[in-house]
Write a structure and sequence with these properties.
This protein is of the alpha+beta class. It folds into three domains: 156 residues, Ubiquitin-like (UB roll) (Roll); 394 residues, 2-Layer Sandwich (Creatine Kinase, Chain A, domain 2), CATH 3.30.590.10; 127 residues, Four Helix Bundle (Hemerythrin (Met), subunit A) (Up-down Bundle), CATH 1.20.120.1560. The chain is 47% helix and 13% strand. It contains 22 helices and 18 strands. Strands 10, 11, 12, 13, 14, 15, 16, 17 and 18 form a nine-stranded mixed sheet that branches. Strands 1, 2, 3, 6, 7, 8 and 9 form a seven-stranded mixed sheet that branches. A two-stranded antiparallel ribbon has the order 4-5. Strand 11 and strand 12 form a beta hairpin. The protein is globular. It starts with 19 loop residues before the first helix and ends with a helix. Bound molecules: adenosine-5'-diphosphate and magnesium ion.
Amino acid sequence: MSCCSEKGCCGRIDFVETPVAEIYGSNCFSNAVMRELLPKNIYKEIVAVQNGEKELTLEVAEVVAATMRDWAIAKGASHYTHLFQPLTGLTAEKHDSFIAPTGDGKVIMEFSGKELIKGEPDASSFPSGGLRATFEARGYTAWDVTSPAFLKTDPTGTTLCIPTAFISYYGQALDEKVPLLKSIDALSKQAVRILKALGNTTTKRVYTTVGPEQEYFLVSKEYFDKRSDLLLTGRTVFGALPAKGQEMEDHYFGAIKEKVAAFMRELNYELWKVGIPAKTQHNEVAPNQFEIAPIYANSTAAVDSNQFVMETLKNVARRHGLECLLHEKPFAGVNGNGKHNNWSMATDDGINLFDPGENPESNARFLLFAAAVVEAVDRYALLLRSSVATSANDHRLGANEAPPAIVSIFFGGPLTEILDNIAEGKAAGKSAMGEQIKIGVTSLPALPKDVSDRNRTSPFAFTGNKFEFRMVGSSQSIAAPNTYLNVVVAQVLSEFADKLESHSKGGGASKVNETIQAIIKESYSKHRKVVFNGNGYTDEWVREAERRGLPNIKNAVDALTVLARSETVSLFENHKVLTKEELESRYHIYLEKYSKQINIEAGVVIEMARRQIFPAVSAYAAELARDASALAAIHAVSAPQEKRAKKIAEISNDLYEETAKLETALGEAQDIEEAFAQAKAYFEKVRPAMDSVRSKSDALEKLVSKEAWPFPGFEELLFKL
Ligand code: ADP
Ligand code: MG
């Protein structure tokens, strides 16, 4: 295995020589670094900009840029790049060097305030869904001060990376970041209104915090390289399950193999350097499946960090002779990859708004915010569903290892009981000693801190002091799910705030408490149907959810249509997060992406079936036939060879025909112009045709010799590293 020359690579990380605390954040232009290096007044300005209190001026940017440049150059950087997240879901970058020729054949290293604040990557080939014509292709990147700049290092060099937002010449959002930033503002505004109404005079701003748990597979690079499906689509489009799958559950939380441990050590090292607090790692349910979770951060930094985590997983894996698979379903028949998006809201003075409190005031606040989430998830279930709607995630949602496609909330018994009691105006149970539940007075029992029966099957679970949105796909950016979540909760909070402000005017604390009680009662009675604490993987739940009227949208194409609805447009426009035009463009881009993805996969199925599987199996059948005649010539038993050859020839014929049918379905889908109709055709016609080809191939794989099969199978991919 080749090894890079960088210190710390390939199992040679010496944490005695370089303690973790020294490594941590050494490549991150964090607030701590800015506090140390910037003049005091400039640092203060930057913090004010981060808090949304001020606009960034060019004067301030000049000073920051010069400091950032010197810091980066001292650490070996030659280039800088504005990182942005176009609607492909990937991270894009265009690199510029710091050099500026001086005219005498020499250069100096320059980086101006303007270059820091604004980039012009052109980038006209990124999807804009019609928001810019290529003749007016200018797109700008603008520095996102809420997410720190950092240095990306690889074995040969260092680049300064500046997280940015990507907008068109006319100011329209072309990326995932702009709406995210706006959604945080929208949520903050409404949450602060509520807090004010509750008597809080100190909080100026509310943040969302996010901690994503990232699942992935590792496979040997040697085997990966032999499979064009993995190379081109990130998943296997063929493959029969080996005799052993995940049924022994011997991988989950098992001892981490040395090779994987070495990979993880280097991964942590790379993440720590840029200030990503990688914390937890373990084996997951499927063979060769793993998870990494950093400690949570503010949501913009968490979104950027997660993009970096995904990229680093892939890069570090390659240095260890491995490939990292982030696809939602790399292997049919074993668990897929998800990403649990842990989400919470915190005030600038350090209060987690989903922390069930220890005193009556914080209890009241918690219950009010929790009720808002219940209402938001119920009313906007379709929108949340759409934020995770990709062709890859379709393989996962509703399959029996992942949350169902039905959006519901888990609260755990004790909390649900309290909310139920409020809704019904009943006593609070034993702990309330038979009194009516009153919010904001001591009769409310201390809320349970830990929701003990942790439910792994719920798509949206309350886990102690945060909500865990578990439908998110492993390979997708977490920007959209968080943006939508922020917007829907902002909407409900704004309605709660309207009521609080008008009903409790001049009435003092008791009037406020009465209003809170009334709001929760009204909201929860109407929306508690979305709360479900049972096993979400069962068929019973599917029937029960239908009875409750909860939507169950099993495919991404239908799930995306909510983006085109007028209620969605007014929701996003009300909170100034996306305009009608921007939403329309996104709807189209997501549909197109869906179609493109399946188009590629179908193409790969045809290629592999025709050019690898068919030739291999017909050669093998012919070999068996020759063996059969040779054996018959000496009057030996030749029936098994003959039967096997016939069986293979028969299924090869089916494979041949199913491939032709797939090609026809694919051609028909490609000819459809309208984006929705096209995506629908890919879903309804092309995907089933792909499955039919696969089933023939998988049957053949079980009949031909291992040596004759043209590429490595699941046994190699899932059990060898
Ligand atoms: P699990 O039991 O689901 O594996 P963990 O306890 O490992 O969950 O935590 C999952 C993630 O939740 C971590 O990234 C953690 O930092 C994050 N988390 C904890 N508190 C919060 C919070 N207040 N806001 C957002 N994320 C949080
Ligand atoms: Mg989790």
